[in-house]
Amino acid sequence: MTIVYNPRGTVVEGKVHISVMIYYCKNIDEIDSGEIKPIADGNTLRAEIKIPDSVKVFALKFFNGENVDGSNGKGYIYPIYKNGQVVQGAMGIMSQIYFWGDAELDVKVDLAQSKKFMQQEFEKFPSSKEDFVITWYFLLAASSNEEDKALLEKELYALLKIDREREWEAASYFFAQINKVDVVDSVQKEIPRKFPKGELARKEAANEIYEEKDAKKMELMYKAWIKKFPPNASSQLNDDYVRAAVGKAFAKENSIAKALEYANMIQNEMWSAEGYAGIAEVLMDNGHYSTAKALLKRAIDNSYEFITTRKNEEGARFAVAGYPAYNNMHAEILYHEKKYQEALAYVKKAFEHTPKTEARINSNYAKILIALGQDKEAFEKIEELVKTGHATAEIKAMLRSLYVKLKSTDAGYDEYIGALKKELAVKMKEELARKMINLPAPLFELKDLTGKTVSLKDLKGKTVILDFWATWCAPCIRSFPAMKIAVTKYKDDPSVKFLFIHTMENVADATTYVKKFIEKNNYRSFQVLMDLKNSETGSNPVVESFKVNGIPAKFVIDKNGNIRFSLAGFDGAEDAAVEEIIVMIELAQKS
Questions:
Q1: Mean pLDDT of 266-275
Q2: Domains in the chain and their CATH numbers?
Q3: How far apart are the C-alpha atoms of 262 and 247, rounded to whole Å?
Q4: Residue 524: helix, strand or coil by DSSP?
Q5: For residue 572, what pLDDT is reported?
Q6: Which tens digits make up the pLDDT trace of 445-492?
Q7: Cβ of 565: how many Cβ atoms within 10 Å?
Q8: What is the rounded distance in angstroms from the CA atom of residue 546 to the CA atom of residue 563?
Q9: N or C: which end of the chain has fewer CB within 10 A?
Q10: Could you report the per-residue pLDDT of 537-580, keeping only the tens digit for each?
């Protein structure tokens, strides 16, 4: 077919070189792409394309550098027709694209459009429902229409009449999406009873193995478990999780042969490197460097295959994720053995395949360079970490030591560090200024750990920092030292208020549990509010009102009650996190 494109009125209008990408969708998980070479024809571009027979939907993207025309978030997406009739599955795939959105295609989420396409798919091809039923359930669950919710509930009860565990699991999941908490509890309790050799029963039995600490007992439990739940086509990865756990338990007890026995049982090629490395790390901690190195070498070789010869296989991205860490651990062992030149080769591989701000890798890189007498290069690497706010206390100590060594004095060091911090602040201010938003903050009232009610409405006129967290959330807790520094900085400023909102709790008496946590970890300067679950809906109302999908999540609200910044996650960079909060507060106060 012929594609004709007129860029008038788009972001690429007037651009000399406009590139075109085409995406061929066989299904939502199988999308191939290629570049089209268009020919200029007056004010338009023209190209000839041929669609492979297996493709059901194709999409186009027009761009010039960072300027992308995605039709204002609607995308250029087209179903395939054969003999004048749309092919089965095409409208369903389009529905999925609009339901999830697609940054690559520059398509924004459009639930109304998604529902329309899915209804068209089902009307023309009733048998398609089996292929697209999960997206259909998501659509009904996301709808604000009570009729859609009622329809979903009816369809979920119908699933419970099917004598297969997967239907029961799907019903349980989507009952949770519409806040039918009692139904979810009942279904989850019934599944292992109704399907005693099913996947849920299998996972619950595996959890009991994880909770055991004695390696020999774990082994006995594993053998009984594998006998009751024989491996099947879909269980390999979960089987390997258990094998690796038993292997780590033996490694912790210095049973080297047993640890290796369980390492050798690991079968899943996509995950085996992670399993080897997990056991190797425990062996390292116990000083068994030679054995750990052998396992890490296997992990590195396995992962490297998916970077090179097997990079196009499904799951390759997962298989290569740990490659930098495996090389870095190997380098640590070689450093301990004083084999510095060999260690340098491995840490370089780690450095090449990870963000350049990864503190542990950079720290090891610097140590190895120092051991080899390459002080200037080590100094430059550490300096870059300080500039980006990713330096740990250990790294800062190394920087000071190298400064003195290279300059034969510590004179001017404080001024030098001050200049680096100032550079960080200037860069961060420029970046954050571009990320400012202006949305009204949802109002709420919550009780703190003393029982006092705190209302966001009453804090109007102040700059308010909200930190959504939970005791089970490791990144949340890792960010607390940085937040404590920020709280201390503003403790005498009545115009700034920090509120730490505990949410998504997974213990019965969350308030008592959180009190103990705060006391034990000396975060008494934090004012903690409890966003407890609603007894009727089972949801945490405040975190839901702020549309938080994952924690930690932080919001900076200005004196007029508007959200000016929203950020999620924590990458472990304490200095950067502190500076980020300070800059956001300053920008919010000036807005």
A1: 95
A2: 2-142 (no CATH), 199-427 (1.25.40.10), 439-590 (3.40.30.10)
A3: 5
A4: coil
A5: 65
A6: 999 999 999 999 999 999 999 999 999 888 899 899 999 999 999 999
A7: 21
A8: 10
A9: N
A10: 667 889 988 988 788 999 999 999 999 999 888 766 777 888 88
Burial label, 238 (beta-carbon count in 10 A; 0-12, 13-18, 19+): middle
With beta carbons less than 8 A apart as the criterion, state whether 483 and 468 touch: no
Residue 420 CB contacts under 8 Å (≥ 6 apart), including other chains? 383, 386, 387
Token representation of residue 287: 């000083």
The type of residue at 389 is G
Residue located via tokens 């969708």? 25
Amino acid, res. 505: E
pLDDT recorded at residue 535: 64
**Three-point CA angle 485, 491, 494, nearest 5°:** 140
User: What whole-number distance in Å separates Cα of residue 207 and Cα of residue 345?
Assistant: 39
* In the predicted structure, residue 536 carries a pLDDT above the cut 70: no
CA distance 518 to 524: 6
**Helix residue ranges, H only, 78-144:** 90-100, 111-124, 129-142
Cα angle 128, 131, 134; round to 5: 120
Residue type (1 letter), 140: L
pLDDT in tens, 79-124: 999 999 999 999 999 999 999 888 788 888 899 999 999 999 999 9
CA–CA separation, 226 and 233 (whole Å): 14
∠ CA 107-109-110, nearest 5°, is 105
**Reduced 3-state DSSP string for 178-217:** CCCHHHHHHHHHHHHHHCCCCHHHHHHHHHHHHHCCCHHH
Map tokens 């007056």 to a residue.
42
Per-residue model confidence (pLDDT) at position 129: 92
Per cent of the chain over pLDDT 70 is 98
